[in-house]
Amino acid sequence: MLKQRSAKQLAKLIDYILSRRPDEFGLVTNADGFIKIKELLKAINEEEGFRYVRQAHLDEIMLTVLDHRFEISDNLIRSKLRDRLPQHRYAMDPPKLLYTCVRQKAYPHVHEKGIGPTGYFKVILSSSRDMAQRIGRRIDRSAVLLTVQVQNSLDQGVVYYQAGERLFLAEFIPAQCFRGPPLPKDQPVLKKRDASEARPEQRPAGGYFIDMKDKLEATVPKSKRNSTAADWKKEGQRMKKPKRKRERPPWRK
Predict the structure, then answer these.
(1) pLDDT digit string, tens, across residues 57-78
(2) Which of 18, 30, 106, 200 could serve as 79's disulfide partner, Cβ 3.0–4.6 Å?
């Protein structure tokens, strides 16, 4: 079992993320320098030796590490020293290709309508496929990776802002400006079996049933199949031949 880092070591990592390089961990601060605590924890948990970190560890730092350099407001956290944070600036010369991920369930809609913000006020993209997938796995373990054709999107009026070395922001990406995997084919819908349908007759292996109705139809003339019991009795009496009287042999005369 790996030994947990001390509260002071964890405080140093959080300070580095919040005050210097949030983009290195796939994070973007808002205009006031805040990041959602749950997003920060997801990023920290991806680092070797810090996968155990939870909200309680942040509370412990606030109480025990006197020289901590971050502050918490509701579900947000930010550094007290933000002068070295990367500023969001207009991207003069963005890369030819950028990458972003969307939830697998949302992909059919995105494929048709375009990419909108998810969990942030702008679409977060990266020049690195690995970083885009890292960010995508935080929202969906099966997130779909999309490749944005930057020049095509610029021609459509998209404006990009840079948020660190490898992260970019955009308001919206039109549907015709990115590539992704083919949409999953619709699965055939299985029809429910009608309860009124007769189930096939089950017969034991190696044996057979004698259908008495078929036997009767094969032996009884068609004209008499619907006769009643009284008809049969009458018919039997009519067809019965009278007994012939036996003559006495000559030798008895």
Answers:
(1) 999 999 999 888 999 999 999 9
(2) 18
